[in-house]
Amino acid sequence: MAGACCKCPVSLSVFKRSLSVAPRGSGAPRSLLPGWRRGERGLQEAARPSSVLRPAGFYRHTTFFCLSCQESMSESLRTCYLYLNQTSRSFAAVIQALDGELRHAVCIFYLVLRALDTVEDDMSIPLDKKVPMLNNFHTFLYQDEWCFTESQEKDRQVLEDFPTISLEFRNLAQEYREVISDICHRMGVGMAEFLEKKVGSMKEWDQYCHYVAGLVGIGLSQLFSASQLEDPEVGQDTELANSMGLFLQKTNIIRDYLEDTQEGRAFWPQEAWSQFAGHLEDLAQPEKLESALSCLNLLVTDALRHVPDVITYLSRLRNQSVFNFCAIPQVMAIATLSTCYNNPMVFQGVVKIRKGQAVTLMMEATNMRAVQTIITQYSQEILQKVSLTDPSRDKTLHILAVIREKSAWSQSSLPPRTLHLTPMYLSAAMLLAALSWQYLSTTAAQAQGTGDMQGQ
């Protein structure tokens, strides 16, 4: 079993000197891998109220562990963390904030799915070769020497040096191995199914999002419970975990309409867009704006139906590092949906929340009361945008009412609690803010550069 890292504190000055953040590398365009956001044994305290979170093992270097931690790792495990930082530096910091041995399990889980994702996304691999690879990928975890050296993808090192990743996979505790292998198998089968199959019905949209994101949420939840940092019900309630993934995935798909259609990708379900246009790309035409907004609002409404499950899921978490890991992407998602709702810019350019807004969300979303307040705030923003003539108006108003009721009920069920911020916790929060700011600035600069190139 991979050993747990020590609990050594690191000063804020070290954090500041060590920030190294860049946008994620290329992979399957709609995979949740960058967004999933995901211990010492014997820490389970099932009797504690859900609003009382354990101290976070959050005081570690975002890119490098302390010297004693590094020395306790095997060379292959250090290499895995190197690949983690190379393939998704923005997400690597969040993984490395997880407590103890859970951190190693999630790191390996991420790299295994990144390798699977790289196979799925590599258009140079013929289908007659790719389909068997996807279906059988989970078996490669137990083959010492298996690797793939023919990939043309940016992240091909996770395939070329897969023996290092599979070695550390086999070094994990059995309960972690079983989760990772099972999710890898199910995801590979799902990816193979959708290689030549377009998303048609709303039911198929749910199915596609389940394969590429819901399974990630289920796997992470099972890892949380296997670590004993979370109660068994977190991993057992697969419906809630699936909703966590679907909410994030649908938000990504909705937001990225223009980018995807310009690159010939179609992830909006035909059952939705065919009500308003003959072809999906027609929604970007100025004369189709009213129809486009109706379709957009229909999909946002469908995504919002997962929010009550998100609230229930987050309210069950006990460990602070796990809570941060899960809550931050969810509040960013509902803020993004609020920005997208009834917004013509979805069909004209890049839709994103402000950098300062994102940093504030990441600093505030560290307890259940704050998360519920954020969800209520953005639900109210969406409510104020609902048009009297929108075809989905009644459904939108209904789900917003359900969210409001769910959030209010959950808040009233939480015991009163005074939040005490220790100096070390404040350092962690400041790190998170600085990390977010640098990542968002880098992303914005890259987007600007891309826009300038396209305008030339």
Features:
single chain, 456 residues, mainly alpha, 21 helices, globular, disordered N terminus, disordered C terminus
What does this structure look like?
With 456 residues, the chain is mainly α. The protein has 21 helices and no strands. It has helices at residues 12-18, 67-72, 75-87, 89-95, 100-121, 127-136, 157-160, 162-171, 174-193, 202-226, 232-236, 238-255, 257-262, 270-273, 289-304, 307-315, 320-340, 355-364, 368-385, 393-413, 423-455. Helix 15 (289-304) runs parallel beside helix 20 (393-413). The longest helix is centred in the last third of the chain and has 33 residues, at 423-455. The radius of gyration is 21 Å and the shape is globular. The termini are far apart.
Q: Summarize model confidence as the mean pLDDT.
A: 80
Shape call:
globular
Instruction: List the uncertain runs.
Output: 1-30, 34-52, 54-68, 415-431, 433-439, 450-456
Q: How much of the residues is beta strand, in percent?
A: under 5%
Overall structural class, as computed from helix and strand content, comes to mainly alpha
The radius of gyration is 21 Å
Termini Cα gap: 54 Å
Biggest sheet statistics: none
Number of strands: 0
**What proportion of the residues is helical, as a percent range?**
55-70%
Order of helices and strands: HHHHHHHHHHHHHHHHHHHHH
